[in-house]
Design brief:
Blueprint: H1 5-17, E1 24-27, H2 32-41, E2 46-52, H3 59-73, E3 77-81, H4 91-110, E4 114-116, H5 121-133, H6 138-141, E5 147-150, E6 153-156, H7 164-174, H8 190-201, H9 208-236, E7 237-240, E8 243-247, H10 248-253, H11 256-271, H12 279-288, E9 294-297, E10 300-305, E11 308-313, E12 322-324, E13 333-336, E14 343-347, H13 349-353, H14 366-370, E15 373-377, E16 380-383, E17 394-397, H15 401-407
Parallel strand pairs: 1-2, 1-4, 2-3, 4-6
Antiparallel strand pairs: 5-6, 7-8, 8-11, 9-10, 10-11, 12-14, 13-17, 14-15, 15-16
Helix pairs in contact: 2-7, 5-8, 5-9, 9-11
């Protein structure tokens, strides 16, 4: 069958973004963008997933619509449900973060390393506009990347060069329906306001195409800054069993922006945080360290050492963090060893460190060890690999500082 011009454009975008025949996940909400992505991917090794956030009564019907569409296309589909909203904080942000984590866990269980998302050029432009309103710098204005590694998954956005209208034209051409989310017209949400502002700004020449082009240029600048930060880290930073040690003389010799990026990357890596600390808070903390021996920021403990700074996890930040013995702890630690019933991972803390007579021989500061992972069975410490009590267990990091520098 000869493809139409719009179908050829979608196929070219998919070929460039999703090469190879490895299994590919695709997130489908039922809206026009994600349904177009699903339809364009039909015929490949695709597994579809829908997240029902449970926030609207229509959500269940939308998930059912996606399941029925996948069944007609002969594609496997699964619906994931989130019921974690506690009414606190930013609803859209909480739902977005939960959605990514649910999909990442699902992909890991399916042996899928890549997940495609249906974001378009319009989404990119709206994101740039929202971040302009918040005074964003280079990172914020580079907006969404075509490819990004996070949560153990490579997230692909093959349609960032195509418009929302392009995708709906493709669906109409194929006779495929979709569901319009009523929240897309709810002016309480920033994205809806940005969408309406774009229509108002169009006569001034501020268009989705122009803003997306700005994001692409900023993305190139960001990549150059990340490369410079990575090069600096190789000379200035040292990983020490989950901590980051920065040579003060080397750090002081860096250009301000590169030094800031390195510090932020270290803080985010140690804290397993998706978001950086506020610039004002970082500046205040560094100023305090000119006279104080230590300070806390972003869930981290920053301590002055003889010739540098040590950034470690703040013990209080992980005091209540618990995971099953075979699960990821605090976003980056896995513990391998002899499994048994009732085992879980918790921070060592004062009680645990007291059961590790050889902890001083490890060379890690006491504060770092208090926040390190241990294997517990009830109130009994079974093993603390970083504190000299291995008992056949090993602690390993699942990410590196270098990956954190270049992954966001």
């Amino acid at each position: 069958m000869q493809l139409s011009p719009i179908a050829r454009a979608l196929e070219a975008a998919l070929s460039a973004s999703c090469p190879g025949d490895a299994p590919l996940g695709v997130a489908v909400s039922g809206g026009g963008d994600s349904v177009a992505l699903l339809l364009a991917l039909a015929g490949r090794r695709v597994h579809a997933v829908t997240v029902d956030h449970g926030l609207r009564p229509e959500a269940t019907a939308e998930a059912r619509f996606v399941a029925e569409t996948c069944a007609r296309l002969g594609l496997p589909h699964e619906t994931l449900r989130w019921r974690g909203w506690d009414g606190q904080g930013n609803l859209q942000d909480a739902a977005r973060r939960a959605r990514y984590r649910l999909i990442a866990d699902w992909a890991a269980g399916q042996g899928i390393g890549r997940v495609a998302l249906g974001h378009t050029r319009d989404d990119q432009a709206e994101t740039v506009l929202m971040r302009l309103a918040r005074g964003a710098g280079v990172d914020g204005l580079s907006a969404m990347a075509p490819e990004r590694d996070a949560l153990g998954v490579t997230w692909l956005r093959p349609f960032l060069g195509l418009s929302r209208a392009d995708l709906r034209a493709f669906l109409t051409e194929r006779g495929q329906g979709w569901i319009e989310d009523p929240s897309n017209e709810d002016a309480r949400f920033d994205r809806v306001q940005a969408r309406r502002a774009l229509a108002t700004l169009a006569p001034l020449g501020i268009t989705a195409e122009g803003l997306a082009a700005t994001a692409a240029r900023m993305g190139s600048v960001r990549a150059a800054l990340e490369a410079a930060t990575l090069a600096a880290a190789q000379h200035v930073a040292r990983e020490d069993r989950g901590d980051v040690v920065l040579a003060r003389a080397g750090l002081d010799a860096l250009q301000d922006e590169i030094a800031r990026r390195l510090l932020v990357a270290a803080l985010c890596w140690v804290a397993s945080s998706d978001y950086p600390p506020r610039a004002e808070a970082l500046a205040e903390t560094l100023a305090a360290l000119d006279s104080a021996p230590r300070a806390t920021l972003h869930g981290c403990l920053i301590a002055r050492e003889a010739d540098g700074l040590r950034i470690a996890r703040e013990p209080a930040a992980v005091a209540g963090t618990v995971a099953q013995a075979d699960a990821l702890w605090d976003g980056r630690w896995r513990l391998d060893g002899p499994r048994g019933p009732g085992l879980e991972i918790r921070a060592l803390g004062e009680a645990g460190l007291g059961d590790c007579p050889d902890w001083r021989a490890t060379g890690l500061p006491r504060a770092s060890l208090l926040a390190s992972p241990g294997i517990w069975q009830g109130k009994r410490l079974v093993a603390a690999p970083l504190a000299g009590l291995s008992k056949g267990w090993q602690a390993r990091l699942t990410t590196t500082l270098s990956q954190r520098i270049i992954s966001h």
